[in-house]
User: Fold Bifunctional NAD(P)H-hydrate repair enzyme from Streptomyces amritsarensis.
Amino acid sequence: MRTAYSVETVRAAERELMARLPEGALMQRAAAGLAAVCAGLLRRRRGRVYGARVVLLVGPGDNGGDALYAGARLARRGAAVTAVPMDPERMHAGGLAALRAAGGRAAGTLPQRADLVVDGLLGIGGRGGLRPAAAALVERIPPGVPVVAVDLPSGVDADTGEVAGPAVTAEVTVTFGAYKPGLLIDPGASRAGALHLVDIGLELPEPEVEALQHADVAGLLPEPTASSDKYRRGVVGIVAGSAQYPGAAVLAVAGALRGGAGAVRYVGPAADSVLARHPETLIGPGRVQAWVIGPGLGEGRAGEVADLLAQDTAVLVDADGLRGLDPAVLRARTAPTLLTPHAGEAAALLGVSRESVEAGRLAAVRRLAERYGAAVLLKGSTTLVASAGGRPVRVNPTGTPWLATAGSGDVLSGLAGSLLAGGLSGADAGAVGAYLHGLAARRTGGPLLAQQVAEALPAAWRDATHP
Ligand SMILES: NC(=O)C1=CN([C@@H]2O[C@H](COP(=O)(O)OP(=O)(O)OC[C@H]3O[C@@H](n4cnc5c(N)ncnc54)[C@H](OP(=O)(O)O)[C@@H]3O)[C@@H](O)[C@H]2O)[C@@H](O)CC1
Ligand SMILES: [K+]
Assistant:
């Protein structure tokens, strides 16, 4: 599991550790890790550190201090290191002295030729959009030069991944002590590049955000045993499709058939299309362990959603099924409930604009889970899964922009519903479903069709369970 911690939590752990260590020890650990990553990048790019031109963008706080001490280490290995301050009056004094003693220098303007830029403008002390002096430096980073961000790319909000105005786009981010949520959640995540965690010895409590890895998924996936027949492996019921959108039913069933359930039942007007593509499907009402309702349903079917929610059975509600949901009804349920909105649907459920959901995805998914008392999977460039009760929000690490394609959400809802039928909780079914869905899309690559994602799911399942 990759875990991420809020600034408040990191600061508290840092205070506790600092009290037990000599002054400056943590910054030295951070700078050593940062310098090692920079040296590795320079060796890969140009064979050696000696003679490399390194530019440090130096902010007024300790983030700038990390950059200066790391710059000193690189200068001692023969790099030509230039520090460019955001504010010449405010630079970490000890770091600047160390850089000068190692042969580095400070300059007022950003050199146009460089092999590496180190972004030490702002770390976890950054607040709001970059002020003009910082924004001006970021805009002058020469194109094509790799940037290593110190702790996080300047301009990215550490707690949320929000980006207000200009921000650094890094090739690598070297982060200290713990991942920050903003490194795992877009738009911040796509600014951070490859992540490198430097252990500085912090002792941390339960994380605010976590990302599953292969081993976590393997541990959660239901594997049939010798004694499991199709009913024990769970039956998932799909209520989807309409005369206008029969394809959504076909795709939801395609996902459900590959999610490990023993059988898939279809209820709705697209039975002929479903059977033509998936002759394995059971048709018509009957007993199930989980229902999926919503994909391609069209308008005017809220009564069917209400009927399913009144049953003591796990339910996944997607797409058109999400219209006009009553929080009180959902909160009263005891069986697992999973809602799978995209940003527009989430906005309607919260009564806010789509833009505000996109800009603050973490807050939005948490509020949805609390308001509806359900697990909520918020689809998007980084899919998030929250559950009611303050558990860590799960960030899906396997997504790819190619998944933004028609029908891909229908496959996901069927897949996650199948996992619910297999006995996973709402949050686990959502997180594991999103993980496999992303892996399947990555395997398919390039411009993809939703049905190809469904077809690649068994291979994705094997990748996660037998890497
Ligand atoms: N945690 C750990 O264990 C360890 C942490 N370490 C390092 O310390 C870093 C945190 O250092 P930090 O607290 O000094 O804050 P930092 O990020 O340098 O920024 C504060 C400065 O920025 C300014 N400023 C704020 N917003 C701004 C904006 N939008 N645009 C422009 N300026 C803005 C703000 O100005 P002010 O508001 O005071 O006027 C203040 O001067 C952390 O990220 C990591 O790198 C490691 O060394 C060791 C272990
Ligand atoms: K930074």
